[in-house]
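Lab notebook: predicted structure, single chain.

Context: the supervisor wants predicted structures on file for every construct in the current expression panel, including those that have not yet been purified. This is the next one on the list. No modifications to the sequence; it matches the entry in the shared construct table.
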Amino acid sequence: MVVVLPGGPVRPEELPSDTRTLFMNHPSYKDSASQLLSIPTKVVGQMGLLYVQQREFAVTVPHDKNVTILGTDDATTCIIVVLRHTGSGAVGIAHLDGSGMEECINTMIQRIQELSMGYVEGRVELQLIGGYSDPRNYSEAIFYNVMQAFHKHPVEVDLTLCCLGELNTTIRGGIHWPLVYGVGVNTKTGEIFPANFTDKGPEQPLRSARYFTGGRQVNQNVLDIYDSNLGMLRIGPFNYEPLRGADLWLQQSDDFILQHLSTSPDVEPPHYVMHVRATLRHIMENPFPAVTIFPDNRPHYYRRDEHGNWVPVRY
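Prediction complete. Output recorded below exactly as produced.
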């Protein structure tokens, strides 16, 4: 009994199987979702930002001089998970698409606990954002598995915000649209706000290639991309399968790519196809990353410079 809802800890048989059941039984989530949605969307640049891409997570602490905002966006059918310890302020964010979730959640909780050692007061709070009411119910399946993963963990986690499903959906022209595509978290205060990000950090096409090609089981992991003790962004090492016909995909129209490579083609942000094309070009030019990108099986490390940019650390 480790997921805590407004009425207290829930037994396994009481765990809601979908968001509609959750909101029906606990209408207070509608109020907290409305509060989030009432906050104007902020456009966030690179200064102080640690951006987390799909199938990645990061955890840090309030006194981290390199990171003041954790953020992620472009979540349509994906779910954004925010975990925070109210005593230490240690906070993490993950962008989950259905793969590797249980291991990710276990590791995030472990990181939060490690960074909160010595704090006798405080509890772990959970916020879930994104995952609109998509036609194929991808988001509902992710929500169910996220709740199951948290419920299996021995640490009590309070679900304080759930802006998912119908609460994160509007209808325009007969089409369901997400109201919030992304959020930022102020690492000093724990404030969560709707956000878009103009800079998404280094090596975006490489990082996207992990989940784009599917393939080996290792690619199903959700990667921890940040070491808060060292203040360093960490990419890799990882491998991915070569993508047959990447050159043919690049010859297709934007609409063809959108319709065939997205789980939510009607509601993707405007830059989606450009991002896909950059990823396809990267895969085509680097079909064997273990050989050409991570030849020594070492991560790529980045550190903030005096201007706030992520710059590579050479060894």
